[in-house]
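not sure who needs this but someone in the group chat was asking about Troponin I from Panagrolaimus superbus so here u go. i didnt clean anything up, its just raw.
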Amino acid sequence: MKKAKKGFLTPERKKKLRKLLMLKAAEDLKQQQMLKEQERQRYLQERILPLPENLDDMDTDELREVAQEFFEHIVELESGKYDLSYEVRQKDFEINELTIAVNDLRGKFVKPTLKKVSNTDNKFNKLTKKAAPTVDFRSNLKQVDTNKFAMEEEKAAEKVDWSK
């Protein structure tokens, strides 16, 4: 009898193919990381001002000029950073407004995430509230004569019968 013909992708071939794909993916990832690092280094070389080599030999006026140049560069970079952060905030606001408009047009609204509430906890809380006896604290208070320190004229005025 003839042997049954096996499929093209046998388990061994699948394993080998998977291994080759993983190696290729790892190689591509390393290459992308290297390109990103090279781009980063190139960008930093453009942006960073080089330090003068003979700082020790410079007099105070030349040092002040170098410091002023660095200060101006820092101010320029900070203003650029502020401008970019402002643009990012504006774009985020625009994106938010547009997504709200799209949702309104579709008729689909973002449903807020609700907290799960246990029904048994609510029933237990209701039972404990009903079971707790109400305590009247006023009935246990000591009676105090409020007119104890009143002046004599006030006592006389109190004794006058106003029902007439």
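also The mean pLDDT is 81. if thats useful
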